[in-house]
Amino acid sequence: MSAGLSSGSNDGLEPIDRTAKRPVVANGILGMMLFILTEVMLFAGLVSAFTIAKSAAPVWPPPGQPRLPIEATAFNSVVLFASAVALLFAHRAFHKGDRESMRRPMWLALGLGSFFVIFQGFEWVTLLSEGLTMTSSTYGAFFYLIVGIHALHAFGAIALLARANHRLQQGWLTPGLFGAAEMFWFFVVGVWPVIYLVVYL
Predict the structure, then answer these.
(1) Cα(35)–Cα(41) distance, integer angstroms
(2) Which residue segments constitute the domains of the chain, with CATH numbers given?
């Protein structure tokens, strides 16, 4: 009788769905999308405030303030864009399932991104020595606020890329982690031309 019960039908019960349901968008990617949406609004507000302050000033930059290194920063911008190109190659290899081909472009993207941030650090040291500080003028305050917040985002994105690269070397990089990392870095790269055009030029 017990055998009959164990092998009997499942009448009156819900059918058991043994298939694993995957989310349409990985949780890591969805979270990053929401984060980036809020950061877009943050940068839009900062750039708008800077533009208003610039248009209201009779002379911009204010007299006595050092000029920003336009040419050097343009070179650094090219380095940043090159890091995004390297990450695109890693993206292509990842979606082809070729993890081995990802390694070099991932290291290159990390190296170029780190160079961008370090170069900016030297730029800041020079500007500070020339008298451009947060308290020297509205010009200085806006410069360090906008570029500084972007640098913090770059640090965070590089850290996430480094984590993804570490997982890649271990052989268990997930689509959610890599997708979130590359999305964050592409955001950092994408918002920079706006900052350069508005703040530096």
Answers:
(1) 10
(2) 25-51+71-200 (1.20.120.80)
